[in-house]
Design a protein that fits this description.
heterodimer; A: mainly beta; four-stranded antiparallel sheet; about 45% strand; B: mainly beta; seven-stranded mixed sheet
Chain lengths: ~110, ~120
C-alpha cells in the first residue's frame, strides 16, 4: 500500500507557482520521498527526491517539513505542458527499495 | 536523465495468442528492471522485479506463468503475456535502475489491446 496521501486534483494558472502537497506521516528515518509525474499515456518522469533537506533542480523544488511527515513539490512557473498526474512516493527499503505508486494528484494548468 | 525504451508502443492481438514486449536501457546498464501495469484512470501497479541473470520476483496476485519475464542482459528485459485475454488489455510500463544510480527511469509504455 502507498504510504502517502495527496489531493486528487488541483488547478493552477499558467505562469504561477504550483504547490502540490503530500502527507507521509508514517515515514521512517531512512525512507526517501520521491516525486514523479505522468503525462497522459506516457511513462512516469522522474522529478526530484529528498530525505530531509530541501532540494531544488531544474524542474522543481521539494520542501520537506522538519518532522518529515509532509512535503510540498513546487513548480515555480507552471506551463500548460506541466499538466499531468503527480505522484508522491515514499521509497520503502532505502535507496534500493521499490517505487509503489499511489493515486497521485491530477494537476491542471489553465491559461 | 537516463533513457529507457519500449517496443512496441502499441499492439493489438487476438485472444489466446502471446505477446512479447521489450524494454531496453539505452545509455546505462540496468541491473534491476521493473514491470508495471496501469488500467485506465488507475495508478501504476508493480507486477514484478527482475535482476539481470536471475528469476523475476512477482508481486502478490501476478501469475508468473502468464507473465513471463526475462532479463538476460544488462540492457534488455522482456515481458511475454501468454494466452492473452481481453482482461489483459492494459498499459504496460517498464522501468530500469542501475549504473550506480538509484533513481528509476521509466519507459514510454506499451498499450496492449486483446480482442
Amino acid at each position: 500500500d502507498a504510504k502517502t496521501t495527496q489531493p486528487p486534483s488541483m488547478d493552477c494558472a499558467e505562469g504561477r507557482a504550483a504547490n502540490l502537497p503530500c502527507n507521509h506521516s508514517t515515514i521512517s528515518g531512512n525512507e526517501y520521498v520521491y516525486w514523479y509525474r505522468q503525462i497522459h499515456s506516457q511513462g512516469p518522469q522522474y522529478i526530484i527526491h529528498g530525505l530531509k533537506n530541501n532540494e531544488t533542480n531544474e524542474m522543481a523544488s521539494l520542501i520537506i517539513t522538519e518532522d518529515r511527515k509532509s512535503s510540498t513539490l513546487i513548480l515555480p512557473h507552471a506551463t500548460l505542458r506541466d499538466t499531468a498526474v503527480y505522484y508522491c512516493i515514499v521509497r520503502v527499503g532505502g535507496s534500493q527499495g521499490n517505487l509503489i505508486f499511489g493515486k497521485g494528484t491530477k494537476l491542471s494548468v489553465k491559461p | 536523465g537516463a533513457v529507457v525504451s519500449q517496443h512496441p508502443s502499441r499492439v493489438i492481438c487476438k485472444s489466446g495468442t502471446s505477446v512479447k514486449i521489450e524494454c531496453r536501457s539505452l545509455d546505462f546498464q540496468a541491473t534491476t528492471m521493473f514491470w508495471y501495469r496501469q488500467f485506465p484512470k488507475k495508478s501504476l501497479m508493480l507486477m514484478a522485479t527482475s535482476n539481470e541473470g536471475s528469476k523475476a520476483t512477482y508481486e502478490q496476485g501476478v501469475e508468473k506463468d502468464k507473465f513471463l519475464i526475462n532479463h538476460a542482459s544488462l540492457t534488455l528485459s522482456t515481458l511475454t503475456v501468454t494466452s492473452a485475454h481481453p482482461e489483459d488489455s492494459s498499459f504496460y510500463i517498464c522501468s530500469a535502475r542501475g549504473g550506480g544510480v538509484n533513481e528509476q527511469y521509466f519507459g514510454p509504455g506499451t498499450r496492449l489491446t486483446v480482442t
